[in-house]
Amino acid sequence: MHTDGCPHLDHFKSNDGLKTFRIIHAIFVVCSTIEARKTKVDNNYCHVCKRIGPLLHACMQCVFFGCHKHIREHTRNLKHNFAIDLNYGQVHCTLCDDYIYDMEIDRVAMNNKLGAGRCRKRLFNWTSWEVTSEDKDILKYNPKRICITPESTIGLRGLLNLGSTCFMNCIVQALMHTPLLRDYFLSERHKCKGNPGTCLVCEVSKLFQEFYKGARAPLALHELLHLIWTHAKYLAGYEQQDAHEFFMAALNVLHSHCKDEVNPTENKTLLNNHENVKCTCIIDQIFTGGLQSDVVCQNCNGVSTTIDPIWDFSLDLGPVTFGGRPPSSLVDCLERFTRAEDLGLDAKIMCSNCKSYQVSTKQLTMKTLPIVVTFHLKRFEHFNEIEKKISTLITFPEMLDMTPFMSRSRIMDPIPSDNRYSLFAVINHLGSSINAGHYTAYVRQQRDYWYKCDDHVITRANLKEVLDSEGYLLFYHKHILGYE
Amino acid sequence: MTLDFKEEKVNIYLESNNALERVSELVQTRLVDCGWRDQVRLACRKAITENGNKIPTVDELVTKITPKARSMVPDPVKRELLHELEMVLVNVDKASYNKT
Q1: What ipTM, to 2 d.p.?
Q2: Distance, in angstroms, between A484 CA and closest chain B CA?
Q3: What is the tens place of the pLDDT at every residue in A61-76?
Q4: Does the residue B90 lie in any domain?
């Protein structure tokens, strides 16, 4: 490909100008208006073989569209020298027998793209990246390169047990292997505005650097622990804690620290105006879903709907009713979670329609799903002050489709969304009660490698082992990220 | 309904409601994410250096690399594409039912 334009095109430009190019580019390559789309649909096929590809081009000298093979025949036979590729807008010169670069063409194309009104990946993926001198310096002063192969263990670090801190270690392992969170922190998106040394987000950011820098010695999380202790006082102390409780506390603190960062003044006014505005911090973007609760009055069938934010799904494991069959799989648990529940005579609810307290049913469904869904299997039961662990076997799949548990209006959507989730971390509790025992985590690393993290010991595991484990907290990541 | 007519209907549908654009962008993202693009880039680079002093044209590269690049597309990406297209096509049928 010529990098400095082409004499043939210069000649063509001086005679005909670039109007043809600009119009074809705007309609067929950028295609941002409804009229353009219509024109494109009507004309977007090869004039010889009537197909839409591969590599459809348009001749710049007459009205002809052709696929890769036929456009070359056309330009060669008729001595029409220039053709525009309709996918990316590159111009091909028959005389040079190659695509050409031309400053003026690039400028016209860029103008069209920028005028498109909305950003489309395909068009902007290919715009070149100008390296700033700052980036150059960073690369120059950090000559060490890390190559990631399927065998590399980068991203795996053992964590020292600081005296019953396995509840924290396993949650940290799960967070460190949350793909979207990792991407966020490794691209250094957190710009801290808090006091140095007090921000948990900064601490997590530091941890990510530690995890992914390639070192292998186990880490001690005393700073993180201290921060959690200062921000969530009820977790302070050296006793064993519940991993789930720690996870919720960690999300809470992270969320509140992120919130300071996202334009404090703007955020405050938003919060004052409407209570339910979704926060844009990374924690909310990844972990927050919307739980819809429909209360149906049995008298008038009136429905009152509320939607609450939700970070995790706590699922009951006990028998549904006395003597009933306890759930045996995650899907069972979810079906039970989203089943319409009779609130009974003792819990009548004020119906706004009937203007009186009526017997009602309540049903929970997912209005919006978070990117990372966490399931908390309630294995610890408090009964008359006695703690009991429910060790029922609950099977859980590697790939989970959440569609059946969505609110009805979502299911009726004309273009159904893909709600498949894949498992990426499992936390297990070993032992007989909440105050004793030990936590371990299975995490997925790179696509399909599983590792077992037991404090400072990390061993390779396989999927079967993971799926056969008991399961206390299950972490699922959305398989396909949708467009917002 | 002839096959051609069906194909045309599908094509129009794919183009007119932006489905093709959406699907191809999705596939493109997947290919970049899974490292396919880097692999293809490497293959191109290799082909260029192996060609000696003469720099191959884009068309030559396309004919040379395409079969190889196709075979390198990971199966999950293909499956996902299939799934996406199925979803879109199911809706083509729905759309035509609604009209008639």
Answers
A1: 0.77
A2: 12
A3: 888 888 888 888 888 8
A4: yes
